[in-house]
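Below is how a single chain appears once it has passed through the pipeline. First comes the sequence as given, then the structure the pipeline wrote out for it. We keep one example in the README because the format questions we get most often are answered faster by looking than by reading.
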Amino acid sequence: MPAAPIPDPSPFVQFHAWMAEAAKTEINDANAMILATTTPDGRPSARTVLLKGVDDRGFVFYTNKQSRKGDEIAANPRVFLLFYWKSLHRQIRIEGPVEPVTDAEADAYFVTRARVSRLGAWASAQSRPLAERAVLEDRLTEMEQRYPGEIPRPGYWSGFRVLPTAFEFWQDMPFRLHDRTLYRRDADGTWTQSKLFP
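Resulting structure:
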């Protein structure tokens, strides 16, 4: 049986190493992650979003704060992230509370988006019922006319930073004897590493 990988003492260093490999092997969106939230009464929901920033504080994604995920985060600001890279036979699970990014961070990212994407942030009432596609297209045309030049960031469009309290790195191994490494943040901010049965 091949030896299990030896993980780095820091979950963030380990994450960056795996993400770098995924960026070379995944066909599309190595930064895609499943974001799981819950309603106030505990009903879960999940969707794919894109990781737009990561540092030692946490993992950043952007969205319409009035979307379903935005509403659920407002009600219960604890989430779960899942990265799955099929080509590498790996996944990473991350859990923790969420905090909003600063307006300066949101503004800086918003201006990097394609023009149509910025207009779309104004045109789309994300997660709300849409009678037909033409309504969205009409709203997009309206926004193009309203903002022929600079497009400001809508106040309801911003980002969230997930502040990890735990990571689990999962590596596929032969005969389903997978390698699972768990990191938990201690009260003093250090990380404790342990193994889980597959």
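The chain has a mean pLDDT of 95.

See the next section for the split statistics.
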